[in-house]
Model the fold of this input.
Amino acid sequence: MPGAYAPFPLTFDRRVSVQMEPIAEGLMVRKAGEDLLDELREAGADATACYQCGRCSAGCPVAEFFDLKPMQVVRLCCYGREDLLIKSRTVWLCASCETCTTRCPNDIDIARVMDVLRSRALRKGQSGTEPKVVAFHKAFLGSIRNHGRVFEIGMLTSYMLRTGDLFSRVGLGLEMFKRGKIKLLPERIKGSGEVRAMFRRKQK
Amino acid sequence: MAPEETKEKETQEEYSYYPGCSLHGTAHEYEDSVQEVFRLLGIRLTELPDWNCCGASSAHMTDHGLAVDLAARNLRIAGRLGKDLLVPCAACFHRLKAAEKAMGAQGGQAAGVRILHLNDWLRRSEVLRRIREAVKRPLNGLRLAPYYGCLITRPPSVTDVEEFENPRSMDLLIRVLGGEPGRWSHKTECCGGSLTLGRSDITNTLVSRIIKAAVRADARGIVTMCPMCQANLESNQLELKQRDRGHPVLPIFYATELIAACISDSTSGKRWKAHLVDPAGLLDAPALQP
Ligand code: SF4
Ligand code: SF4
Done:
């Protein structure tokens, strides 16, 4: 895969706010972007264990479309460059195929690193780089919140309204409808109130 | 090639069952064939009452807590039924397994029942033996590419699957049904299902590579156990063919559809009605003749 092993272009960036932290008597180290690293560690993904072997990038099926390779994403977490990460296309184009996580020799759950970065990007209002991908996730989750189960027509309508992409898949939709794959009414569940409560918990 | 012996001797005659949203909608032919196969083999499936969506990719990609909550409600229902839980959808299986692990890690009580994908079920040697005994119309050497995709097997820390780089459950199944499993390069490559709406250019590229790899292995069709893979492979190759008339197009089967076609009495063409690429011709001649 061309570019998978591209040399890492960034050096430690001195603009990020740097705090000092004692790690042993008389020894101080830089502390930058620690809250990201903490959240990652809590999620079971210790980015600092990475030794840049490149296995994650080499096996990633989508890496050729990424602006940052998976190994660069992991390293930038250590460099405290969340600013670059949450603006990247990579976090939204990652398909969550779990190949990188499966193969990392240091057991870094890179797919989970991507999850954490996506949710941090949304929390910080950053979702401009791949608006259609974000619109899909929002439409999908909206459908679950409304019905407890996904209702395809409602989900697709919401997606089309969010993106203005009204016609690109109409032909396919008709073919699927003819084959009984698209239901006209949502399935409703008794536990829909419980499901909505999960979404409310999330918003707090 | 004998399947690995599993520890337990007896086959369980009843499972609880989580269909998930795809099997109730866009992948209803998967649901129909799962139900048919289990009925024909005399195994009872009890659908989880009032199940909710597992959250799929969209929940865990954007909110970990929500993803665990959504899946955990289903696991609590499964725990009340007390039977091992069969999950045919790869994404649902993955989310339920991930929630099981997360609940365990938080010191909580997971469902107390095992969560099985069809992949795990087929790995029980007793199951393949029963399917072999039930075959009425073998595939007569039809060459098929077993396609596992991502979430059935990866990562093993979540799925508890031992064969994740080179899984074999469908390879063995195809043999048991009298077909020839193609050995090929893309059996666990991602098809880009989660990008199919947002970035169809990427999905097109990934699907094209998978279809061409199957054709290189002389496969006449692809077999899958994931509703996203089936829909994505099937629809994207049609788009690809619209643009390039020389692009190959293969029928995409659910493993359970093939089992049902081989072990049931009916040869009805209706079985393939839901498919965008009609495989009937392939199976009528010369294979699958009684
Ligand atoms: S595979 Fe693991 S150790 Fe190797 S570069 Fe990727 S994250 Fe770092
Ligand atoms: S999970 Fe994402 S980053 Fe990792 S290999 Fe798959 S697409 Fe690439």
Summary: Confidence is low (pLDDT under 50) at residues 1-10, 286-290 of chain B. Strands of chain B lie at 14-17, 44-47, 85-86, 115-116, 143-146, 180-181, 221-224, 252-254. Residues 62 and 130 of chain B are 42 Å apart (CA to CA).
